[in-house]
Design goal:
It is a single chain. This protein is of the alpha/beta class. It has a single domain, classed as Ureohydrolase domain (Arginase, Chain A). 36% of the residues lie in helices and 16% in strands. The chain has an 8-stranded parallel β-sheet, sandwiched between helices. Helix 5 links the parallel strand 4 and strand 5. Helix 8 packs parallel to helix 9. 53% of the residues are buried.
């Protein structure tokens, strides 16, 4: 495949500083080399630059950095749309607010191609707050709601050229949901597989059922991989740790199944905070997971020394 790497070092949406170093850490951990080793063509498009935005004051006084996130979203959406032209874009974050831009950009591309866009959201949190419902005010908690076309973003965030149908969204690995999000997820028809579902049924049957839906509709699949999808014992470099996340093998199994499906058309790698990492272990794991998604077989996996 032709992979286009694009950095989006936004950190204004998170509660802790450091995510702006995420794209650099992923590059340093060998993302480009891993993709080349697997036979893919790689173009590094560099880094998105936000554009200044004037945003009216919102009634929710808890909101933080709204103008900055709107500026990032506008720039990332345009860059994501361009990068998805006859290529597989891999977006390097940055906190999860960047997905407001990546999702809107690839949704626009999918709409032009006349194909439905599905989203696999690998995260401890569903990020399904609106500007009204977020209590923390951290805008990495709103991107999936925004891209799904929920009300309340009009006049603040950029107008969407195409929305993601929330009934084509699967959140996997969820284990921290606010009451307002729970109601919104149910009303919108999002598929939610929390860690209890994974414990009871196993990851493979849940993911397989979703991939069968994507294939049946000839859909495109955007995967958004948040570091906190993983258990913090194996991936400490994230400011929103929630115990009980996906294990090393569960995460690799998900990536291997995604590769086997042949359905993935774009990828987010988000919430990596190198300031909280241990000798780069989380960045290396994220690169290894990406390699599994892009075709590295279990018998080809290198031995790692820390």
């Amino acid at each position: 495949m032709h992979c286009k790497i694009l950095g989006a070092p936004v950190q204004d949406g998170a509660g802790r500083m450091g995510c702006e170093m995420g794209p650099s850490a992923l590059r340093t951990a060998g993302l480009g080399a891993a993709l080349l080793e697997l036979g893919h063509t790689v173009t590094d498009l560099g880094t998105v630059e936000p554009r200044p935005a004037e945003v009216p004051k919102h009634a929710n006084s808890a909101l933080k950095s709204l103008p900055e996130i709107v500026a990032w979203t506008t720039a990332i959406a345009e860059a994501a749309y361009a990068a998805s032209d006859n290529a597989m874009p891999i977006f390097l974050g940055g906190d999860h607010s960047m997905s407001a831009g990546t999702l809107s950009g690839v949704a626009r591309r999918a709409a032009e191609q006349g194909r439905p866009l599905f989203v696999l959201w690998l995260d401890a949190h569903p990020d399904f707050h609106t500007l009204e419902t977020t209590a923390s005010g951290n805008l990495h908690g709103v991107p999936l709601a925004y891209a799904s076309g929920l009300a309340g973003f009009e006049g603040y965030f950029p107008a969407l050229a195409a929305t993601v149908d929330p009934r084509r969204v699967c959140t996997l690995g969820i284990r921290s949901v606010d009451p307002a999000e729970r109601l919104a997820l149910t009303k919108a028809g999002v598929t939610v597989h929390d860690m209890r579902s994974i414990d009871e049924h196993g990851l493979a049957p849940l993911l397989r059922a979703f991939l069968e839906r994507v294939a049946a509709e000839n859909g495109l699949l955007h995967v958004s991989l948040d570091v906190d999808f993983l258990d913090p014992a194996i991936a400490p470099a994230v400011g929103t740790t929630v115990p009980g996340g996906a294990t090393f093998r569960e995460a690799h199994l998900a990536m291997e199944m995604l590769h086997d499906s042949g359905l993935v058309s774009s990828l987010d790698l988000v919430e990596l905070n190198p300031f909280l990492d241990e000798r780069g272990r989380t960045a290396i794991l994220m690169v290894d997971l990406t390699a599994s998604l892009m075709g590295r077989r279990i018998m080809d996996r290198p031995t790692r020394s820390f």
